[in-house]
Structure formats: C-alpha cells, structure tokens
Design goal:
Oligomer: single chain
CATH class of the largest domain: Alpha Beta
CATH superfamily of the largest domain: ACT domain
Pfam families: ACT (PF01842), ACT_6 (PF13740)
Strand order of the largest sheet: 2-3-1-4
Shape: flat
Number of strands: 8
Strand content: over 45%
Order of helices and strands: EHEEHEEHEEHE
Protein name: ACT domain-containing protein
Length: 171
C-alpha cells in the first residue's frame, strides 16, 4: 500500500467531498483520516488515503483533475510517524484578537521542541465588551527531555503580555 496526503481547496459548495470521495474510492483508495472545514468562503482540508501501489498514479491523476471543483496537491507519506515518549497537553487561549498571537505562542513552543499535533483557531465577536475575540485550542507533545515547568512558565508569561486567558491541561 502507498500512503498519500491530499491537501484540497475550492470554492465552498455542495458535492465537493462526494466528488473527492468518488475519485478516491473509484481508484481503489481508502479514505483513512481527514480534517475539512469551511474557511473564509473556501472549503479546505487535508485527507490521508491509502491505495495499492499499482493504482497510486491513477488515483493521483483522478484527484488532481477535479478542475473547477477542487485544487488538490498530493504528497507521499511513509505511514504513521512513531512518537518518542512525550507528554501530551492541551493548550487553550482566549483573548482580544490582535496580530501575532499564533506567532508568539508557536515560537515559544518551538524553542522548547514542542510539537503542535493539532491546532484550531477562530475569531468571534465579544458578546459584552464589543470587539473581536481570538480563540485557539492546541494539542501538543512535549518531548521527554524538555522542562515542562519552563514551557508552562514561558507560555504563562506570553499570555500575560498578550492579555489572553491561557489554559494548559493533560490530554
């Protein structure tokens, strides 16, 4: 079997997932995992598929020819990545929206060797105070050789500077 990762984007409308699923299944592929969303009028996502090696090129040709529906980029994958012993954490942020929040938090995590496994962000109107709130949820892996206390301390300092609420918990 060959593992492929498909990144997809197109103007949001009914039938996009069906068209992609038809192309995958029609060429012997198995849809294994995905993250799909409506973002700013676009439909975007990433899909992991497995396909018999002898049918991979036909599947690639089928999904990349969905012109007019979806733009699809295909990437080869070696299968599941083995993770070293690490501490799983969930990080939540909520505060007034401003440029740089993701950059500052991700830079702090990177300095400690922390891997962001999943991140979801959104903005929404602040119900009582007016303005816009920024909200983020991250699932991260802290390597065994990282100082978990130092990671927490740095994130708390950044949260205080950015004036955002920070929650850190085990997964």
């Amino acid at each position: 079997m060959r593992n492929l990762v498909l990144s997809v984007i197109g103007d949001d409308r009914p039938g996009l997932v069906s068209a992609l699923a038809d192309a995958v299944a029609g060429h012997g592929g198995n849809w294994e995992q995905s993250q799909l969303a409506h973002l700013a009028g676009k439909f975007a996502g990433i899909v992991a598929v497995a396909v018999p090696a002898d049918g991979a090129q036909q599947l690639i040709d089928a999904v990349t020819s969905l012109d007019g529906l979806l733009e699809v980029a295909v990437h080869s994958a070696d299968g599941p990545v083995e993770r070293a012993t690490a501490t799983a954490l969930t990080i939540g942020l909520l505060g007034n929206d401003r440029p740089g929040i993701v950059q500052e938090i991700s830079a702090a995590l990177n300095r400690s060797g922390v891997s962001i496994e999943k991140m979801t962000t959104a903005t929404r109107e602040a119900p009582m105070a007016g303005g816009t709130l920024f909200e983020a949820t991250m699932e991260v892996l802290v390597p065994a050789d990282a100082d978990l206390g130092a990671v927490r301390t740095e994130l708390e300092a950044i949260a205080a500077e950015l004036l955002v609420d920070l929650g850190i918990g085990g997964s």
